[in-house]
Amino acid sequence: MQKILVSTTVNGETCEFACEPDTSLLDALRTELRLTGSKEGCGSGDCGACTISLDGEMVCSCLVLAAEAQGRTIGTVEGIAEGSALHPLQTRFLEHAALQCGFCTPGFLVAAKSLLEKNPDPTETEIRYWLAGNLCRCTGYDKIIRAVQHAAADLRQERTGA
Amino acid sequence: MTSATYHAPASIAEAVGLLSSDPAARIIAGGTDLIVQARAGRVKPGAYVDIKRISAAIGIRSFEGGFAIGAATPCTALLEHAALCAAWPGMVEAANLIGSVQVRNRATMGGNLCNASPAADSVPALIAAGATCLVAGPSGERVIPVTDIPSAPGRTSLAQGEFVVEIRLPAQPSGGSDAYLRAIPRTEMDIAVVGAGVSLVMDGGVCKSARVGLGAVAPTALLVEAAAAALIGTTLDDNALDAMGEAVSAACKPIDDKRGTASYRTHTAAVLARRAALIARDRAGAK
Ligand SMILES: Cc1cc2nc3c(=O)[nH]c(=O)nc-3n(C[C@H](O)[C@H](O)[C@H](O)COP(=O)(O)OP(=O)(O)OC[C@H]3O[C@@H](n4cnc5c(N)ncnc54)[C@H](O)[C@@H]3O)c2cc1C
Ligand code: FES
Ligand code: FES
Asked: A50 near A107, Cβ under 8 Å?
């Protein structure tokens, strides 16, 4: 079968990869680009472990064809930290023990980052609804919600320079 | 997986050409139904025809006093259009009950409609709103009511080569508004057991016109004219609402499944339609 050549920007860098017409973007990220942070929990849009940002909006990369990414801008969990400096969300997830097995964590981090970009001061209800598409088998969610609330406060403080 | 091909045409004509030349070609809008079905082997697309690069299929514009929504516009984009949200709040809410934020950033109303699930959330609201579709195909363009698109579960009336380019919403008269409610076992991320959309126009406390759409209670979403007739000319008093509820229940031909029994669905449809009518009335009055 004819492979499709896709050029795209991933975490700020331009990349090219080849894919089959029906390869998912998740598979292309993991196997072609070796970005294995994004996980496949279900492959059907239900669990959110594969969450990435596509042109600034969070989507399930298992439900995107890799070929659709031509010319688009992608953000994955690998792009959240700046070098070795963890993002406040990552720091707070660690502090609050907001992960156990960690399989869901990349998806939660990308989704929470997207929330805080749009809404720097979300209520608990807003956080829970925003993260309704991310499933976690281990933590019971409360620790994740606390971590997001604290990271939101950190980011607000950073922004005001206080 | 398969030997499909992928195309991202830039024009309506190109898309029609691709769809006409291959009976197994499938439109991909948000892909949130199609990719799941292809992965499960339930559909085997010979070609994916991505309509997101066709400018006429993207975005929301004013049209004849109402709105034209490109068929590839994701549901979350509707929330950012203030005039659309003011005119058709129930329709925008219905589209934004679909799945999670991740899903809604991709999912479209066109896909919701053309996937032809009886439980599709935006469809009863579109029916209540009196929405139409601009359909393009090998023999040109035509405009048809949304009710004409789904023909059976998973089937549409579209001919080979045809696709929905945009969804059109009529002008909202003053005193008019709408609402959509659904019953699901969870608060998010589940399939409607029943969905009810109502749009109405109030004038001096009297209902001048109404439309009632139902989902998940029959093989396709329904327009229930008898339910609307029970509201028109009344102040939406209890008698009128009871009569509407009876007309709604009479129109239901639901299935029994793990999500709900037929009698539960029939009863709940009337309850939700009643609540939706009152929300639509209050919204209309608040304008
Ligand atoms: C986790 C999850 C949760 C979901 N929850 C809900 C829910 O709560 N409520 C609900 O109603 N749905 C739900 N869905 C189903 C789905 O997201 C919706 O039906 C969505 O609106 C489909 O739109 P799409 O653009 O992704 O369609 P696609 O998958 O792109 O297309 C669906 C079908 O319609 C055809 N099609 C698409 N656009 C056109 C067009 N313009 N012209 C002709 N044919 C076309 C395609 O060929 C395909 O057969 C859910 C899906 C997932 C994965
Ligand atoms: S793997 Fe994509 S949503 Fe579960
Ligand atoms: S930490 Fe195990 S699934 Fe969330």
From this structure: yes
